[in-house]
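For practice. Supply one:
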Amino acid sequence: MEKKNSFDLQKIKDEISSPVLSVRLKTLEQLLSEFHDNDQIMELLKERYKLESDYECKKLIMHAIEIFGQSIIKKAEKRAVRLDNFKKEEFVLLSDYERLLFFREISGKDAGKIAHLAPELLAAEKNPFVAAALIKTFSRLWPHENLKDLASNLLSSSSSVQMAILDLLINISPQSLTRYLPKLLTSGDPRLHLFAIRGMAKIDLPEALLHLEEFLFSQEKSGREVAILDLFHFPFIEIKPVLLKYFAFESDLKLLEMAGSLFEINPDPEVPFKLWEIAEDSFLEKAQTLKTIVQSACKVIKDSGILADNYDSYMLKLKEWVQRHKAQRFVQDTIIKLKATSSSEWDDFTSRIHAAMKIKFCFEAFKMAINWTIDPAIKEYLQKLIQEVEVQSIKIQDDRKPAQDYFTLSKSERVRYFTENTDESEEIRQSKLKIALEVINNDKFDFGEKALALRRCGKAKYSGLGAIANKWLNCSNDELQTAAMDYLVETDNERLYPQLEKLIKNSSIKVQIEAIKILQKSDPKYSLSHVKLLLGKKNQTSQEVGLAALGNYNFPLVRDILFDFLTDQISDSFFDSGLFLFQTNPDRENLYYLYRLEKKTSNKRTNQVNNVRKQMISNLISLDIIKQNAIAKLESEWQLRFEKEHASLNDSPKPYSLKVLKTSELNVTSRNNLFSFFRILSGTDPQKMWIIIGVLLLVLSLFIFGRLN
């Protein structure tokens, strides 16, 4: 009796219309293998046939229509194939349908009886879809002595055959894929490309993860969707760093939810911490999506029982970490802003810092900052403020004073009035909003107070100041410009975003850093490419902006960039600023990067990096992220890892490596562009051609003359 297959008509429609070729092929093959005898599916196939542009898909649709149209499952008289007297010569004379049906119905046990004939049957098979079904049927039984010949079919013109062979070899002989990987990894079909990466993972996992990362970050949405599905085939512990990096870059909420299911089936106590950190650097909707995924990740951690009876203490630790992380990020931002501001203007920060120091974790973070590699003048300034708080010499303004009292306060008290946020009632918030509007419209207040007032309006989501903010955005005072940006990002993104491109090139360092920070939330990939560009310039101001802007990103995203920058760094000031970013982002993996940096520096800097690493170890122990008795083992692992990496530098890169393939791709593109240019020249009027060549030679001469002088 034939089994009836349940199906989702809309899903089938979506998949046979997918922009990804291999998704269409896979669905059509599945329809053929399951033989859905259904009028609605028949109509879908006929409609798709009219639109399909790929030859193989078109042929497969035609084949499916032919089979379904004949209602073969119900009406055709099947020709029995006896396994005890199986003859290849008779089998190849059967119709395509009969051969497909045979491979569909044969059991694993029966397939074993004729598995030795599989290579001969494949050599005789002319229909690529039947060939793919044949390979799948004998996938685990294929004679090992014939695997080399099977692998040679990886360059078949049929994607169906390629996918079937890849699946087989990944499972039983991944090494035989090696010579074909360069071709497969440059395939334009995302699913075939990803299958090749999956095979490479069995041979060279680190390189496979590099390819997977490149794929996740560079392909269009449909390709990224296929890549996410492929992640489920990798060990979670191996793809976790790549996955977290992907979460930091991705802005499509549906894809984030899709990838988030990996965290819902792989309980990992570190994941909620990392995702929350990424959420803090994301735009509002993405942050909300990530926090929902965090809740699901916490639930699976609880349900899995991996924490035994310590789940409640784990959640308390997570909540405390969130507060500490926010505090450290605030302190980091404050120090970066102080560095970008003249010391004569630091008094404007005093009240804001005092207000923040009322929060326990902020106060602790400022005290910790005294031991970081920061400018001595900033260190002295912060020490003074910490001392004032410790001896309780500052007067805390009561937020609940009547609104009219604001105008009788001293300047420092007025600043604190807008910067303190603790335990505010709705009545107080509305009162502060009213006063903020008065300050903005009153010329007797200076730029600093007006900027604070506008930021307060932004936090209150008051949207009536778009015109004023837009005017300030284009003024010459950087305090007003950054306040206008902060206000618009909260209330009117559409007015702000078109101007960000101009603002990241502003003459003010503070404005550039703020613009990159905002751009990072909406388009982290583009903004980071701009930061790399700044760091690569030999201009001191550009490098200063780029280095400060790195503090806006989820640190694992920029750790390699910062490390490379520091290893080539001549300026002691920039080297200190780079170490400062390591210190403000304590993390287990940072310890190894600092260990590497120690090995690549000398004299004073070696001792400096060593001290930073020891401070971070103490910090991580106090946060219970690492244990004191694990340090010796960690240091031994770092040494082995460093030696292995150092030794690999002398090895020639593999032909399938990302480095080699990207270089080849660049060369092909350049060569094609050159050929195109000469083809254009060859079709040009001879007189015009000589004019073009003359102009090119003149430009080249001027360039060489400029270089020599």
Remarks:
- The chain has 41 helices and no strands.
- The two ends are 88 Å apart (CA to CA).
- Residues 71-77, 395-404, 668-683 have pLDDT under 50 and may be disordered.
- The CA atoms of residues 197 and 242 lie 14 Å apart.
